[in-house]
Design a protein that fits this description.
CATH superfamily: Sortase
Keywords: Hydrolase, Membrane, Transmembrane, Transmembrane helix
Order of helices and strands: HEEHEEEEEE
CATH architecture: Beta Barrel
Strand order of the largest sheet: 1-2-3-4-7-8-6-5
Protein name: Class D sortase
Radius of gyration: 18 Å
CATH topology: Sortase, Chain: A
Oligomer: single chain
Mean pLDDT: 86
Low-confidence stretches: none
Strand content: 25-35%
Distance between the termini: 67 Å
Largest sheet: 8 strands, mixed, barrel
Length: 190
Amino acid sequence: MRWVRNFTFMSGIIFIGIFTYQFLQSEKLQNDSMQEAETRIAANKEAQSNPDTFKVNENEAFSTLEIPKLGKEIPVVEGTDADALSKGIGHLSQSVLPGQGEQIVLSGHRDTVFREFNKIEIGDTFIVHMPYGSYSYVIKDTEIVDEDDTSVIREMGEEVLVVTTCYPFRFVGNAPERFVAYAYPVQNTN
């Protein structure tokens, strides 16, 4: 019986060590991405770039998403693969950027960048800080869809910021659904 207790104790220590390492690694990657995004924003503001000429490379941090209700500002990285999502919020490359008049899709993990997303409600705002200006959006609708439902990615005929994360928020493991927030422009705050 003693070996079972020792094995359980050691397994717990190993699990805590792995979790701590992954958490610290995630924080470091996000901090590095935030510095990269802030540098890009500052450099391009001086060059006075605009939405139509702005270019970004895959896995590059180029923007930030501010969520005033949560008191957070998070880096936005081009792409939605595992590498991009480990660095911050991913921008779906097939969608447009703020100021380009169509659907903008941002995604992030519920247990890292969107840890407190369960507090988000209709009427809350998102502010996207781009190298060519800042764009404010108000959440007007939310929905929960199946994890395989791609119908939320579509042409909308107007500028809409779509922010997605896994759902339920406190689910352990791969979540079966996605929480989707639809936010519409308030004003361009360049």
